[in-house]
Amino acid sequence: MAQENQNGASKAAAAVTFTAVRPQLFVEAPKATDAVQFYKAAFGAEEVNRTMHPKRKADQELPLILSAEVKIGSYSLLVSDLADDSDALAKTVGTGCTICLETDEVEAAVGKAVAAGAINECATATADGESACCGGRVAKLKDPYGFVWLICSPAKKPVDVVA
Question: Parallel, antiparallel, or unpaired for β 24-28 and 46-52?
């Protein structure tokens, strides 16, 4: 199948395989270190890697995190400081993103996150049902950095319907 480029040239579309999706969360500088600690306490995250901002001199300016990779379950995300002089493509913190974590222990996960500093935005997890985004029990939290997290039970397996 041929595709047209923006300049009108035609070329064959190459197959692309992605190996991971890694969201990057920007927090107001210098709070990335605090955010990583929060994700460890609230969600059992494990810090895998950290890269400090190369333009900052530790003895002259507050060192900032360019990216800290954390794993929650088998998935990774990046946490970064967003400074005024940042080259980051996104220039806002804590908006436009909802992260869904699945667990069979919704209430325990919510309790742990709230104890670490998250705000529970619903009094109780919603019951199983069609309205739940993940198909099971769902609770909505906001972390201290403005990100919204849904804690949900895994969706039930669909039943085959004979037509």
Answer: unpaired
